[in-house]
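Attaching the record inline, Q. Sequence:
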Amino acid sequence: TFPAECIEASVPTGDKRRRLTRADVAPVDAWRIMMALKSGLLAETCWALDILNILLFDDNCIPYFGL
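Structure, as predicted:
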């Protein structure tokens, strides 16, 4: 057991986060995503992967990728 003021003693919440869709992210050009991935910078790569994850899980933007 952990002391009450310790972060390890906190109880996780059972609330689910809302799923993000294409409307929640700004209009993103595919070129910008590609350049962010090519840059090799950690923040840019994380941003690009997050955006790709959001867009690929949104069924309404399949034509965006030409699938």
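The chain has a mean pLDDT of 87. The radius of gyration is 18 Å.

More tomorrow.
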